[in-house]
Amino acid sequence: MFKLIRRNLLRNKRRTILTVLSIAIALILLSFLDLLLAAMSGVNSANANRLVVRHAISLTFSMPAAYEQRLAALEHVEGITIMNWFQGRYIDDRPENFFPRFGTDPDTFPDVFPELALSPGEIDAWRAERTAFIAGRALAEEKGWEIGDVITVEGDIYPVDIELTLRGVFTHPTDEAAERVLYFDWQYVEEALGNPGQINSFYVLLDSPDNMNETIAQAEAMFENSPDQVRAETEAAFFLSFLEMMGNIQFLFSAIGLAVIASIFFITVNTMAMASRERTTEVAVLRTLGFTRSRVLAIVLFESLAVGVLGAAIGLAVMPVVTGAISSVLATQGITFSELRLDDRTPTLVMGIGVFLGLAAGLVPALQAMNMKIVDGLRRVA
Amino acid sequence: MTEKLVEISDVTKNYRRDEFSIKVLAGVSMDVTEGEFVALMGPSGSGKSTLLNLLAGIDRPTSGQIRVAGQSLGALNDSQLAGWRHRNIGFVFQFYHLIPVLTAFENLELPLTLTKLSRAQRRKKVDLALDVVGLADRKDHYPRQLSGGQEQRVAIARAIVTDPRLVLADEPTGDLDAASAQEILDLLEQLNEEFGKTIVMVTHDPRAAERAGRELHLDKGRLNSATDTALQG
Questions:
Q1: Domain B4-230 is classified in which CATH homologous superfamily?
Q2: Residue B163 pLDDT more than 50?
Q3: Is the pTM of this model over 0.90?
Q4: Count of CB contacts below 8 A, A vs B?
């Protein structure tokens, strides 16, 4: 029976190859969108105890630095630190030299980000030197940085070039993406700019996730009548709010993904229906030879399933290359997602959809073949 | 003593075409004894192929009884009928209907895959059947690489490879040239005489019918008993 299925698949090679490739491409696109969403949301490294306070209008607006003291006074706050997106240019504009560069406060940062492991010596060294910086292990390894190395980052958003010395390398227990970041003392830039006292965001560590909603309400209420109102949200929600800057991309991606699945489903259904229709007489012959309805159903379904699984397998094999290529293209546009890589659930997702597509697309032709009257099938040609 | 292999009693078959009911068979009764070679003749639309399909269990009568090898076909459900067909019937089609993606050998092996036979046992049976039809040297050929006559011989080999009690042939020479038709008729005759296969053959061709031991004529769905002619023996 499997020989028959295999030969049937190869009967019209061009059609089978095109169908398999269309499934593969659709699955690559779909899982890439999924990875992109996951990468953009950055939820892997979000801490349930942490909330982020930013300007109510947009992330591109800043708040007075004095807000830090007022936020720190809230009941459930255990720690607070500042976070400014410096951006800048390291070496050149090539994508591989783009990575997040944040200005923060070395005195408070380690308390608010306890999951980033730094030795006490490294923390002290960072605090002791205005031009010191710390980097995640993944980033340091990628760049070949050693403790004591000096790097220069040209300012673009801020009109100041900064020269930084590596004094610490931190690790994250689970999220390698969180290790592809550089943190330095914002005071360095602040002084160079003449102490404007403007902050992008405050990261606030609470005593318990249970107090998140209460603190969010308190923080927002605190500055309700200020010229710079704030928006407070969980760290995970904050990551997602990046998406909102570009409209509801999550919805858009999901819609695109569904559209891709739906269109490829109908293409596969059509292909399988055509293949099955062409073999109506053969199915009738098989039934005449003694093949039961269920066996005929299984033959058509297996054939369709094979197309789906083959498409998924090719998609999975090619996906790392495609993901890398698209990441590079995105990076040239200044869009970098360090965690845009296949994860453990990607094979399951892709194979699951491949199996679903194969079975679902084959179901109607298989049922038609199963329920066809033998004499009608024989009459088609005879 | 010869045994009745096929017993048909008062079988009718109606088809519905839109709002019309068309009577294809009207009260046909006949028997075929084991080892007979029967030619079923009649003009187009007389119901001979329909009768053959009913005998093969690939269609069901509107009324009446069909017993083949002691089994009432009406008592079997679809799945049982498929198994029964596999064990008892070998069917030869006018247009051969070999599976084009399988070689001659694989086409013959196909019905045997429904059995519990080992691969070696299947190979033995297939080789034997191909030997009988004289195409052992063509076993690796695909249907498109065979002539019409050779395709039909492979189809006959497929029909006998499971060693069925009844071989049904629906216009087996209808798509062949005269020489190939003669070869096919010789082969059917050989199956009947040497291997004792019971054969019911539908044909238009009086010369083909002459090769059978008995001719039955259908006309407008009725068996013309006056033409039930024993030609041999």
A1: P-loop containing nucleotide triphosphate hydrolases (3.40.50.300)
A2: yes
A3: no
A4: 66
